[in-house]
């Protein structure tokens, strides 16, 4: 995005990428439909960046969701608002957008250099490794947009952290965001249900309750509803070693209605058939319940207690899944280490943008929106920096 703005202004821009092609993580984001941004009112949108909302907030006001939609449409990809308010390209993919984008950049004179692995600085030069050989460059300005450290096979392994630390540039430790969590399932449950969704449930932590879908994995849980709580859960685990997530397996019915239905006679039906018949609980939901020894083949049960368990099933989360598996990265270059245009205070002329910066947000389009918006701000900073030098 920065390359597009700067090349349109007549600057000569070269993109160096360690992989053999551009935008691999962007393409991966497209596998889930490419949720570009969100249609909610801007004030609510900005709140999703949490405690650090002040800085991304002003940045997002300068390049708001509508601008991102306009940009996408200018590349021939119409957008639409999904039922949840999320915004997607009509193609539901990243590849046509990326192709059109690269073609525009090339027309504007942007050069792509692949297989260039950035190694750091040597005095005032930036150093790459290309086919094993060092390459030193002295550009007038540099933008580092090296991403976080999730999905390292796509090129983002966070190797820049060590380089920044050597230069004493302040960084908040990289941590998984929008991630799953380890749960100790029984062998039986793991074998039967790994890979299956738990649909139409709600998860809550403290006062925050999110309705949606939870994916069961062989060693834990993931999925949209869990991701939405992941920063709170991660912080709780950091402080207390575990976090208790409360599952509501039947969010559309209240406790008293569930209790009333559970008072109906079982007439020889198995526990799971009974729960399926009267509460329409899925097999995975019934079996989660049976992860609690109290509900394994109960002959007699107290409807009130069972209803409570269905509405408030506690799951012990042991740790977040590793950063490599997360959708995004929390932590990164501290805002104290950069000026208002994201130029590194310790490295005049070097800017940073995207997930490298220390912000986090839930899924829903907030990630790409902030990646793009920080790049727009950095591009304007580079423009100012270069014109200041020209004077
Ligand atoms: C599975 C998945 C689905 C996602 N879906 C969505 C979604 O629907 N909506 C959304 O908003 N967000 C989504 N995201 C997040 C989104 O993709 C990221 O926030 C975004 O790609 C980050 O952009 P970036 O420019 O900061 O870094 P990246 O896109 O990660 O790009 C960084 C680039 O830098 C290169 N690089 C790194 N180190 C070096 C080096 N030393 N030398 C040279 N090159 C280097 C990498 O190879 C990479 O190409 C998803 C992420 C994942 C993993």
Q: Helical percent range?
A: 25-40%
Given helix and strand content, the structural type is alpha+beta
Sketch the major β-sheet.
Answer: 6 strands, antiparallel
CATH top level label of the largest domain: Alpha Beta
Count of folded domains: 2
Radius of gyration: 24 Å
State the separation between the terminal residues, measured CA to CA. 26 Å
CATH topology of the largest domain: FAD/NAD(P)-binding domain
As an assembly, this protein is: single chain
List unreliable stretches of 5+ residues.
Answer: none
- Beta-strand content: 15-25%
Bound molecules: flavin-adenine dinucleotide
CATH superfamily of the largest domain: FAD/NAD(P)-binding domain
Question: Helical element count?
Answer: 14
Gross CATH architecture of the largest domain: 3-Layer(bba) Sandwich
Mean pLDDT: 95
Based on Cα principal axes, name the global outline: elongated
Strands, total number: 18
What layout of secondary structure does this protein have?
Layout: H1 2-8, E1 14-17, H2 24-31, E2 37-38, H3 42-47, H4 54-62, H5 65-74, E3 79-81, E4 86-89, H6 95-107, E5 111-114, E6 116-122, E7 125-130, E8 133-137, E9 142-144, H7 160-166, E10 171-177, E11 181-182, H8 187-193, E12 197-205, E13 208-217, E14 220-222, H9 224-240, E15 243-248, H10 255-262, H11 271-279, H12 283-289, H13 303-311, E16 313-317, E17 328-333, E18 350-352, H14 366-390
Parallel strand pairs: 1-5, 9-18
Antiparallel strand pairs: 2-4, 3-4, 6-7, 7-8, 10-17, 11-14, 12-13, 12-15, 13-14, 15-16
Helix pairs in contact: 1-14, 4-14, 10-13
Residues 16-19, 24-26, 28-29, 32, 34-35, 116-118, 145-147, 150-151, 155-156, 159-160, 327-328, 354-355, 365, 367-368, 371 line the site of flavin-adenine dinucleotide (FAD).
């Amino acid at each position: 995005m920065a390359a597009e703005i700067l090349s349109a202004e007549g600057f000569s821009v070269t993109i160096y990428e360690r992989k053999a092609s551009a935008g691999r993580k962007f393409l991966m984001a497209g596998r889930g439909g490419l949720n570009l941004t969100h249609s909610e009112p801007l004030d609510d949108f900005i709140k999703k960046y949490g405690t650090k909302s002040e800085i991304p907030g002003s940045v997002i006001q300068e390049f708001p969701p509508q601008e991102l939609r306009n940009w996408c449409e200018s590349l021939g990809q119409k957008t639409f608002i999904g039922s949840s308010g999320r915004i997607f390209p009509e193609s539901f993919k990243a590849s046509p957008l990326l192709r059109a984008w690269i073609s525009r950049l090339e027309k504007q004179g942007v050069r792509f250099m692949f297989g260039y692995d950035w190694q750091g600085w040597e005095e005032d030069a930036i150093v790459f490794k290309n086919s094993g050989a060092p390459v030193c460059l002295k550009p007038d300005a540099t933008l580092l947009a090296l991403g976080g450290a999730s999905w390292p096979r796509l090129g983002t392994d966070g190797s820049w952290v060590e380089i920044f630390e050597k230069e004493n540039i302040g960084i908040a430790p990289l941590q998984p965001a929008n991630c799953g969590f380890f749960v100790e399932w029984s062998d039986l449950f793991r074998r039967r249900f790994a890979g299956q969704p738990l649909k139409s449930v709600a998860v809550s932590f403290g006062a925050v309750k999110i309705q949606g879908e939870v994916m069961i994995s062989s060693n834990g849980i993931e999925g949209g509803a869990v991701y939405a709580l992941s920063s709170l859960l991660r912080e709780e685990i950091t402080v207390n070693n575990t976090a208790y997530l409360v599952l509501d397996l039947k969010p559309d019915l209240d406790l008293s209605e569930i209790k009333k239905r559970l008072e109906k006679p079982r007439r020889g039906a198995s526990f799971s058939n009974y729960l399926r018949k009267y509460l329409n609980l899925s097999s995975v939901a019934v079996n989660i319940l049976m992860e609690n020894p109290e509900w394994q083949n109960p002959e007699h049960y107290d409807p009130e207690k069972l209803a409570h368990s269905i509405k408030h099933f506690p799951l012990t989360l042991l740790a977040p899944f590793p950063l490599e598996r997360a959708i995004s990265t929390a932590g990164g270059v501290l805002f104290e280490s950069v000026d208002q245009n994201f130029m590194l205070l310790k490295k005049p002329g070097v800017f940073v943008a995207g997930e490298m910066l220390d912000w986090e947000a839930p899924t829903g389009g907030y990630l790409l929106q902030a990646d793009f918006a920080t790049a727009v701000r950095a591009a304007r900073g580079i423009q100012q920096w270069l014109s200041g030098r020209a004077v």
